[in-house]
Design brief:
The protein is an alpha/beta fold. It has nine helices and 14 strands. It has a single domain, classed as Carbamate kinase (3-Layer(aba) Sandwich).
C-alpha cells in the first residue's frame, strides 16, 4: 500500500511569505503522494475590515455571513490557493488547487447548532475518494482550500483542520496515511509560552490527564481531538509540529507524534 501524506498548514505560515516559500520548497521535495490543506490567514480579515464588513468569531471560528463568504471564497480558493499552486509549479511539483466544490470533492452541509447560527459554515459529509485517488495516481499533488459545498449551489466555509482530518480518514482505505498538522509552534507544548516544552509523544491516557488538569493550551484541543478521531478511523500516524521542520516531522525527528496505543 502506497504512503500518502495529508499535510495541513496554518494561517500563520500563510501570512509569512518567507516561511511559506520555504515550506512549499520542502513540500515539493516529498517523494510520496501528498495532499496539502491550507488555512486562510489574516488576509480575508484585513480585506473584510477594508470593506467595512464586521467579522465575528465564536470559540475562535469565524461566523460566515453572506458577504464574508464572498470574501473568504475569493481569498482562500482564489488568491491564496493559486499562489501556492504557482509556487509549487516553480519548484517542479505538479499540483492542482481545488475547493470542495471542484469535482464534487468535498460535500458538506450548513452547520446546525441549537444555540448559535454560524452562517455559511460547513460540516463535512462525504469525501470524493475516487477523484482524489485518480489525481494522486497521475502523480499530481492536490492543494485544498477550506471551501466546501452542499451540492445545492451553496458554498460553505469549512475548518481546514477538519478538512485535513476527513480527507486523511477517507483516503486511509486506499493508502497508508500519515496526517501532519504543520504550524508555527514546535509541537504540542506542556507550557504554551515555552517553545522547548514539546511533548514528543502523546497517547490517549496522557492527553485525557492533560485536559482534565487544564495543562494543555485550549486552542490546541480541537486539533488534538481531530488527531485522535483520525487515528480511530484508519489513519496510521498524526504529527503536529513546526512547518519549517516538515522534513523532520515526516522522519519523526521533530514535533509531537500522536498515537492511539
Amino acid at each position: 500500500m502506497d504512503k500518502l501524506y495529508v499535510i495541513k498548514i496554518g494561517g500563520n505560515i500563510i501570512d509569512d511569505d518567507a516561511k511559506l516559500a520555504s515550506f512549499l520548497k520542502d513540500f515539493s521535495l516529498i517523494q510520496e503522494k501528498k495532499i496539502l490543506v491550507h488555512g486562510g490567514g489574516k488576509l480575508a480579515t484585513r480585506l473584510a475590515e477594508e470593506l467595512g464588513i464586521e467579522q465575528k468569531l465564536l470559540d475562535g471560528r469565524r461566523i460566515t455571513d453572506a458577504e464574508t463568504l464572498k470574501i473568504v471564497t475569493m481569498v482562500y480558493a482564489g488568491y491564496i490557493n493559486k499562489n501556492i499552486i504557482a509556487a509549487l509549479q516553480a519548484n517542479e511539483c505538479n499540483a492542482i488547487g481545488l475547493s470542495g466544490a471542484d469535482g464534487d470533492c468535498i460535500l458538506a452541509h450548513k452547520r446546525i447548532h441549537p444555540g448559535m447560527d454560524y452562517g455559511f459554515v460547513g460540516d463535512i459529509d462525504v469525501i470524493n475518494t475516487k477523484l482524489i485517488t485518480t489525481l494522486l495516481e497521475e502523480n499530481i499533488s492536490i492543494v485544498f482550500a477550506p471551501i466546501t459545498h452542499d451540492q445545492q449551489g451553496q458554498l460553505l466555509n469549512t475548518n481546514a483542520d477538519t478538512i485535513a482530518q476527513e480527507i486523511a480518514k477517507a483516503m486511509s482505505s486506499n493508502y497508508y496515511v500519515e496526517l501532519i498538522y504543520a504550524f508555527e509552534k514546535n509541537g504540542v507544548l506542556l507550557d504554551a509560552d515555552d517553545d522547548l516544552s514539546v511533548i514528543s509523544e502523546l497517547k490517549p491516557v496522557f492527553y485525557k490527564e492533560l485536559k482534565d488538569n487544564k495543562k494543555i493550551f485550549a486552542g490546541m484541543i480541537p486539533k488534538l481531538d481531530n488527531a485522535f478521531t483520525a487515528l480511530s478511523n484508519g489513519v496510521k500516524k498524526v504529527v503536529i509540529g513546526k512547518a519549517e521542520n516538515i522534513n523532520q516531522l515526516i522522519s519523526g525527528n521533530s514535533g509531537t507524534v500522536i498515537t492511539n496505543e
